[in-house]
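Slide 14.
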Amino acid sequence: MFPELETNRFYLKQIVAADQAFIFEGLGNPNVITFYGVKYDSFEATKAQMEFYDLLWKEKTGCWWKIVDKETGLPVGACGMNSYQPAHEKAEVGYWLLPENWRKGIMQEVMPVMIGYLLSAWKLYRIEAVIEEDNEASCKLSEKLGFTFEGKLRGAEIKNGKRISLLMFSLLRTDFQK
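Slide 15: predicted structure.
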């Protein structure tokens, strides 16, 4: 059974087929995907992301949640874990919010609950956040959450025909404080 998590203001719920329009709203939005690894130009193309979420859970290689505002019942963003490597007790986390929800402390509230769950239920020792070099907001969030900056992966990816560098942050089980 997919785990549902809760904070003071939000529910973290499984992303299901009926959420495709919401996922497209986020991952088709140029402001959201500026520093994100995937983007979709059409609702139909977003089906690949929905299949990705399903496959992660079915194969137990990760899990992603939609973040739902308790007051409005509306989804505001998503967060999750992928690239799970059980032999090394590690995985990578990611997240995004619709622009109207930026700078409201949502990820500072949601991420510790998700991280606590991942460390416990998935028996992780190391959680990685790989962030595009120019994404200052995510870098600051990672540091506020207790992640340690480990270094720059120079010229690690090509995005929009341009080579970009990535920054590696990590959080060890021994670093985590709820």
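Speaker note: The chain has one domain: 5-131.
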